[in-house]
C-alpha cells in the first residue's frame, strides 16, 4: 500500500487504512502502538503466526436484521413459508424439466420432404421436373419434350 500510494497519502491515513484491513484481534494490539508502519507490518505478521485459533476469515454484517411484526401470528408465518416453499418447488421442477427434456433444435427431422424429391406423376425425371428446359442432365424414363421440338 505504501508503494502504491507514493507520497500522496500521509503516514497516519495510510496506517488507518492498513489497520482496517487486518483481523480484529490484530487491530486491537496494533492500534495503540506508535511504531512506524514498517515495524507494525512485522508485528502483524508475528501476531498472525502465533495466533492459534482456527479462524480463517472474519465476516462483519453491519445491516440490521429485519424487524418482526408482533401482530403477525405464527400461522401467518407458516402460510407465507408454505407459499414460498411451493413457489420454490415449482421453479425447481421447471429447471429439472429444462435439464432433462431439452428442446429439439433440429426441426429438419419433422419437415416433410420437398415436392422436388417426390416422384413425379407426369413422368418427368428429377432434372426436368426441377429445371425444365434448362436441365443439363436427364434420367430415363423421362417424358419431357422441349418447346423447340414442338
What does this structure look like?
Residues 94-121 are annotated as: Disordered. Residues 104-116 have a biased composition (Basic residues). This is Gag protein. Helix content is 45%, strand content 0%. With 150 residues, the protein is mainly α. Among the domains are: 2-50, no CATH class; 119-150, no CATH class. The radius of gyration is 40 Å and the shape is elongated.
Largest sheet: none
Distance from first to last alpha carbon: 96 Å
What's the alpha carbon Rg, rounded to whole Å?
40 Å
Shape: elongated
Order of helices and strands: HHHHHH
- The total count of strands amounts to 0
Protein name: Gag protein
Itemize the secondary structure elements and their pairings.
Layout: H1 2-5, H2 11-20, H3 24-30, H4 37-50, H5 74-100, H6 126-131
Quick rundown:
The protein is mainly alpha-helical and 150 residues long.
Identify the notable features of this structure and list them briefly.
6 helices; mainly alpha; 150 residues
